[in-house]
Amino acid sequence: MSLAHRPAARFFAAFYRWNLQNRPSSLCAMFSHRHRCGAHSTHASFARSYHATRHLLQQPENGLPQQNDLSPSKIEDINGILEHTDANQRDATRIAVTDIPDLDAETEALKSSLRALMRNVPTSVAVVTAAGVDPKTQEHVPLGVAVSSLTTVSMDPPMISFNLKEPSQTLNAIRAAKGLFRIHIPSANKGGANIVEKFSQGNHTAAYNMRRKSLRKLWVPIIRRDSRSTDSMAPQIWDDDVQAAMECTVTQELPVADHVILVAKIDSIERRVLHCPAVLYFQGKYMRVDGTSIKVHAAPTPATSDQTIQKVWDCAQFPGEKERREYMEHIKAFIKADKSHLELGNLNIARLIMALPYQPQALGINVRVLVAECRSEMGLPNPQLPVAQRDTPVLDEFYGRLAPSSREIVIERAKKMVSHDVRFLDLEYATLLQHLGVSSFVKDLLPSDIMKPLRAAGLVDSISTKGNDTYNNIYRLEKIEKNLVQYMRTLRFEEAASRSWDHLMEHSGGDNSTKPYFRNARPRLLTMTQPVVFSRENLDISGHVSEAETRVVLRRIVHYLFVSNQSQYRRYKGVAPGEILRRVHVDPTITGMDVEYFLAKIEHIYQFTHHFRDFAPKVNELLGGWFEYDITWDELKSRVKQFVEATPLRATKWSKADQMAALGLHHYAKVQVPGQDVPQEVRSDVLLATLVAKELRDFYGTGTPRENTAIAKFLKETYDYEVHAKAHLQPDRLDLEQGDSSIELREAMLSNLNVDVSGGTMAKRYK
Predict the structure, then answer these.
(1) How many other CB atoms are there within 10 angstroms of residue 308's CB atom?
(2) Cα dihedral angle (202, 206, 207, 212), rounded to 10 degrees?
(3) What is the pLDDT of residue 384?
(4) For the chain, which residues make up each domain, given as ranges?
(5) Three-class DSSP labels, 477-545
(6) Which residues on neighbouring strands pair with residue 124, listed in sequence order?
(7) Residue 186 forms beta bridges with which residues?
(8) Sign of torsion, CA 742 745 748 754?
(9) Cβ neighbours of residue 181 under 8 Å, at least 6 residues apart?
(10) What's the mean pLDDT in 503-507?
(11) How does DSSP assign 237-282, residue by residue?
(12) Where is each Flavin reductase like domain found (predicted)?
């Protein structure tokens, strides 16, 4: 700001603050009237006291959440509010402040210092609920907000206070309910933190759906005569992780800047006999009183009313180069539309990432560099990026799950760099990865993956002495990796899979600064240190998956998630992607498919589906890009033949559902069989089994000894059919005009399947 403009800027800023602090308070006037009329004044006069000249009270209830606020697991407001506001309210706020000049540098510095200071002050966390109705559906909704500013004011009478940031739908609802509301005190455990998390996502349709689906004992009163209803008619959370609830009535309202302090009288307390303390909030994390953190599974935040940016979910299968570039452009437009996203501080970058529908790092998009690029394009002064990021491209070349071919390119680049100057290895590891074109968020890439080939090529000493205990270059991280692998080998699988990274770093010579380099590699570390759990006997899909294997993995994931049962889906959806893969007998380090995107897309569908009965059909619709419902007879035979010849062992072991997925067919796919008037389901007892068995018989003798033995064993045990090495192969048809061996095989199969053959048709025998 130039010197000539500073007095004017200070005047307007001071005037804005004075105007906020001197607005008339509708509640103050109301409560003075109430005290004059007695404590039990009628509801009619009480309700009219809330009319006030606050234009923001007219905001709709079903807007999307404000993008500048986050869940408390990511960011906190020093004023004690963890609430989102809806999109329309956000716009109103922006209109009110965008024309006001920025505060001077001294004030900004003071704000930053206060914010940093208050991060280190532990605060209690509570959930405030109030009666609310969706204006579109007229449905009673679980409206509420998490606050970190709750405190007692007096004990005689019992009074509490907290503050809300305006505009606030929760504040509007409290006013509409004549000052009545309910406060819940969550316990200091994962369940309690999860409750707070769910009420930190704003008040809109997706957030209401999320709360209903995630909180098992959330009850929203509809009628007053229900014995469970209270005077406030506020939603009630009677989960086991809520240790107490209070019914309250507002007695005083005090506007301060852009917040409103509410003072309320406690009307009643409903307390459970629990020994667990209440959850705390400290340094952006949920905490217990002993200082240990509480981690919660944060569901994706329905972030923005800009539908363009939601197109990241429109991929028919997985996002490729075209889709990620489009997503990058959509993010740029989103950033430029809201200048609050143009700040480069860590806190603001975290806000931005949480405001997006899908994590950009997962697609190799460097958000900090992208924000800097937006500032340059808008002609804004651009604070210098860290040295390591000044020449970094927005899009990393390699990200996510690295295919074998990508790893080879990375290794060759590393060899060329080190042969030119070995001091590249002295760089910060994140900087080294950037020089190699690799995202810092890449999965399953370990420092040794780079160092071993360099040693094999004679470019690095076999024993490194350059690592130290403070600088995170590849030498130090390789040492930590070695210690980590040795330590994880001493643990049982359950321990190795669940131990916190703080614990693992403590036992391997690492610290908080080294955790990010290993966090995405836990599946890889588990496969290295738990060979029995991840043996070939337990996993039948590994490496770089083919298209057929991709379809089988997708089918198994959907089957595991149990998308037709809400309680089961809620139980399993929080399982880590790597562990889900292991449970469905797939190596968690597979490449060639974006498992994380697929799971995130299913969760996105779940969060935006109002009625659970519509969830499974939408997931089926999602799978339409991979599986067909109709197929011709000739095409079916061709696919079965290709499947058996490519993977004969799997043809003998995989379930019928997996076989159909490998063929690219939906579970209910149908085929028009020659001689049949009505299309038949491919999964019927006879049809697919007959085709697979015939191809296995024809393939016998041309495979490896292991494959031939497996085929002979399968046909003998399943159909009591003795297979013989073939001297000559002839084309077969699935009818009675076959050679003797074909008829023999077919009759053996049909007999085993309890099927009669009469008049050239197959009929199931019922006993």
Answers:
(1) 12
(2) 170
(3) 65
(4) 3-294, 309-389, 404-529, 547-623, 628-764
(5) HHHHHHHHHHHHHCCCHHHHHHCCHHHHHHCCCCCCCCHHHHHCCHHHHHHHHCCCCCCCCCCCECCEC
(6) 280
(7) 242
(8) negative
(9) 128, 129, 130, 173, 174, 232, 234, 248, 250, 264
(10) 96
(11) E--TTEEEEEEEEEEEEEEETTEEEEEEEEEEEEE----PPBPEEE
(12) 118-288
Residue 759's pLDDT is 37
Q: Which amino acid is at 595?
A: V
Amino acid at 239: D
Taking only the tens place, the pLDDT of each residue in 548-606 is: 999 999 999 999 999 999 888 988 988 999 999 999 999 999 999 999 999 999 999 98
CA–CA gap between residue 665 and residue 623 (Å, rounded): 10
Is 420 in contact with 413 (CB distance < 8 Å)? no
- This prediction has a pTM of 0.65
User: From the CB of residue 636, how many other CB atoms can be counted at a distance below 10 Å?
Assistant: 20
Residue type, 303: A
Count of residues in the chain: 767
Fold of 3-294: Pnp Oxidase; Chain A (2.30.110)
Burial 566-600, CB ≥16 within 10 A → b, else e: beebbebbebebbebbbebbbbbbbbbbbbbbbbb
Band the pLDDT of 120: cuts 50, 70, 90. Answer: confident
pLDDT band at 765 (very low <50, low <70, confident <90, very high): very low
Task: Of 163, 134, 129, give the one whose Cα is nearest residue 145.
Answer: 129
Tokens of 440: 């810092």
The backbone torsions φ and ψ at residue 266, rounded to the nearest 5 degrees and listed phi first, read: -85, 120
What kind and span of H or E run contains 550?
Answer: helix 547-561
**Whether pLDDT at 21 is above 70:** no
CA distances (Å), 90 to each of 87, 261, 348, 739, in order?
A: 5, 20, 17, 76
Q: What is the pLDDT of residues 206-260, one digit of tens each?
A: 888 888 888 878 889 988 877 778 899 999 998 778 888 999 999 999 999 889 9
Q: Angle 252-256-258 (CA atoms, 0-180°, nearest 5)? A: 120
Distance CA 76, CA 109 (A): 18
Judged on CB neighbours under 10 Å (0-12, 13-18, 19+), 445 is buried
Which of 142-156, 696-710, 753-767 comes out lowest in average pLDDT? 753-767
Structure tokens at 380: 């804004």
Give me the pLDDT at residue 146, please.
Answer: 93
Percent of the chain at pLDDT > 70 equals 76
Place of tokens 């139980």: 571
The Cα 111–Cα 119 span in angstroms is 12
User: Other CB atoms closer than 10 Å to residue 23's CB: what's the count?
Assistant: 13
Q: What share of the chain is helix, strand, coil (3-state, %, to 5)?
A: 45, 15, 40
Distance of CA 30 to the CA centre of its chain: 45
Burial class, 69, CB count within 10 angstroms (exposed 0-12 / middle 13-18 / buried 19+): buried
Residue 636 has pLDDT above 50, yes or no: yes
Q: State residue 703 phi and psi, 5-degree precision.
A: -90, -170
Q: What pLDDT sits at residue 466?
A: 58
Name the β-bridge partners of 285: 282
Distances in Å between the Cα of 393 and the Cα atoms of 152, 498, 581, 588, 599 are: 52, 35, 33, 30, 28
**Cβ count near 764 (within 10 Å):** 12
